[in-house]
Structures are given as C-alpha cells and as structure tokens.
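ok trying this again, last paste got cut off
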Amino acid sequence: MHRFKLLALAALAMAVILPTQAQGLRLVASPLIAAPGSVSGVKQADFIVAVVNSEPITNNEVRREVQRVLAQLEQQRRPQPDPRLLAGEVLESLISIKAQLQLARETGLKVEEAAIDQAEQNIAQQNQLDVAELRRRVLRDGLTVSQFRAQLSDQITLQRLRERDVESRVRATDQEVDQYLADQQGNQSLDAMQLNLAQILVAVPEAATPEQVEALRKRAERALTRARAGEDFATLVREFSDATDPANGGQLGLREASRYPALFVEATQALGVGDVAALVRSPAGFHVLKVVEKLSTASPTMAVTQSHARHILLVPSARLSESDARQKLADFKKQVVSGKADFAKLARDNSQDGSAAQGGDLGWASPGMFVPEFEGAMNRLAPGEVSDPLVSRFGVHLIQLLERRKASLSPAEQREAVRNMLREKKLDEAFRTWAQDLRGRAYVELREPPL
C-alpha cells in the first residue's frame, strides 16, 4: 500500500521512545499509522490497557502506534526494538498525551475548524496532492476523514498547549549567550584565532625591592580600575604606560594568538571585544590588557537564507468571520495574480498589521523570525508567488514572497541565533520536566498489559 507523509498524533509525544521526534513539537510529517484494530492485517479483540483520569487507552491504540514507530524505524534503517518492550514505552507516551489533552480541555484551549483545514492543506501541499486526493488515501489506509482530522486537532492542541504553558516561560539570558560565546572562543585553536590587544605596561626593574614592586602593583591597579570604568584607554596609556611607543594607544597589532605571550592569551581568551583583563604579572612588570579585536579564522561567518516578503493580515472579529476573511484574501490573490490589483496597495488599504503603511513589507527576515505556520507557507513560495490564505495565531494572512538571498549574519544577529539555539535546548528540558510533572499528577490505572 502506498505510504505518504502526514501528521501523526503520537509523533508529538515520543520523547520517551524517540527524543528527536519531540523536539519543537512542531507539526511534522510522519508515516500513516495502521488502521485501528488491525496490525499486519490480523484482527485483534480490543480491551482497555489503562485509564487516565477516567479516560481509557485501548490495546489497539497501543498496537497501531507500535506499528507506526516500527515502520518509521524501518524507513530510517534503524535497529528494530522488541515490540513488547516498545509497547510499554508507547503506553507511557500515550498516557502523557492523554493527560496533556485533558489539561487543554479543562483550561478552555480550543482548535477552530479553519486551523484544521489549514493543517490538512499543508499536508496535501507537502505531498503534492490536493485535499480530495489526500482524503482518498487516508480512507485507503484505514482511517476515516473524521479520525484523521481529530488527530490533526489533537496535534494542534498539543502545540498550542506547549506554547502557552512552556514556551512562553523559557528565555535565554544575555549572560548565557555571553558564556556560550566565551566557551566557543576558549575551545578554539590558537592558530585559528587572531587578536589585537592594547596594553598598559607598568615596568618592574629586575633589582626592585618588595616595597617598590608593591608600589608599582598599586599603580597598575589604579590604571586597571580606571580602564574598567570606561576611561579612554589611549589616555591611560599615555599616563601610566612604560612601553616604548604609546602613540598608537598601546595597541600591539592584529596577529595570530599563538604569536602573543601565553600569559596574554590566557588572560584574554574568555573576553569579548572591548573587555579589560585582570592584571597580568610577567618578568617585565604588570600589564593591563584590553581586547581591541578578536577574529576566528576557523569558524566562518554564519550565513543563512533570508526571505523578503510582504503580507496582508485580517483579524477575525464579530464583524468579520474567519471564513469571510479567508474568502476576502482569496479574492485579493486572484486580483494580484491576474494583474488587476497591486499587492502593496491592497495591503495599505486592508491589512490590520503594523506593516500596512509599508504596503505589507516585512523586510528581510532570517529563519525563526516568524511563527512556524507563517514561515512554512512563506518558505514554500517562489519569488513573486502569492500564497493561499493561511491561518496563524494572529489571524488570516496572504503572503507574497519578493526575493531570497544568502546573507552573513552581523555580530548582533549571530548573538540572536545563539540565543535561539540555547532557548531550544532549554525548551526541550523544560517540556520534558513539565510533561513528567503533569503525568505524575494524573490518576492512572494500569490494567492488562498491551499485547
């Protein structure tokens, strides 16, 4: 039987079995699950294996999810676990899913039909099908359309629950970003790093007495304190430094880190540009060191594919239903595609987004700047193409992609990329802890083990 990619409910909560499947809890494609009540074409008597807060989980639910996981592992050419051991892990995941869906219902989280329609359309587009053909294949593979759409609803519910209860609370701080960048710099080979340091040298004569050394140390510490307070370093060089050429502000020049004294590299390795190191003592005397430049030749500048798009946003209200908003935007698309209307003018006259005054122009955007449903639709467009109306948590959008480019990230953008990466790592841990806590608070009655 022909298999194709579609959304599968359990792919969202397989952290126990396949942790990489759960990362991000995005609507992801996975193989179609087996028909309820059948595994490899053999009919099985069904029975309840667990009850979660009065809601049952049946043996057939576990069996078909086991089959889905085994089929996915086979496609990926990964080792096949013992189905009976896998069944116990699958049951735990289904218990966790059930508890999450119950929490969503109890707290009033709902999924509108238009969002399910949008998810169904996305799956069809990803598989290069229309919705009618997608539904025919769903029926052929043993699910009713209503069962399939119920799975989509559950997935969207789980995604929104995570966004509300987990994602909104997770942040990556400036300190964590700084520490990550410092660790990366600290792990670099000295030959792969270039430094330009500025120094204030308070020289210590070879025959200096302990009293003289102490006085010179205090002099160097005064220079260090003022440098860290933000005073102009070149001015401090002229006032304090015993170096032979203070005219260049004490700068020693951009060179490979291996060509600097090891003491200097160790003192500045974890610092960023503009930072001042702790006082360094060498046979020549006391050194106050400031990082003027720091370049890595091993790590090329981060580059990403950026998209330049514009959009029209309509926000459903008592006067404009979601269905009417979709129809209105569909009409706008026909006008733009036929050349009867200008997208920018339609955006200025109709969009309810802050970009309306700019004709809906969103500027250049790097990956991750937009919500997944918007970004996914935008990424499927060719330059000049206009999307079908799509629903996001903000309303109903019509998108036109203007152009794409490869771009190097500025230092600020690189920091933001690191921040997003660290946040994703923290999200995985936060979600796992949250899900385990919710599972622990649920009343679970285990009955017969799944077969």
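PB: full thing came through this time. The chain has 14 helices and 15 strands.
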